[in-house]
Amino acid sequence: MAFLGTQIALECTMAVDSNGPDGVGVPNQASPTPDSALISFPIP
């Protein structure tokens, strides 16, 4: 079955060391990456 013309949304997540400079200070955990450090790229 083909779904021609169907639109989908994708959400990607990056993480940083929580105890690092962009983290929230929780040792041995991960924090969401701040917007200023996200990697962006165009999707054709």
Low-confidence stretches: none
Number of strands: 2
Structural class: mainly beta
Strand order of the largest sheet: 1-2
Can you offer a commentary on this structure?
By secondary structure, the protein is mostly beta strands. It has no helices and 2 strands. The protein has a two-stranded antiparallel ribbon. It is elongated. The mean pLDDT is 80.
Descriptive key words:
elongated, two-stranded antiparallel sheet, 2 strands, single chain, 44 residues
SSE map:
Elements: E1 15-17, E2 30-32
Antiparallel strand pairs: 1-2
Can I get a quick summary?
This protein has 44 residues and is mostly beta strands.
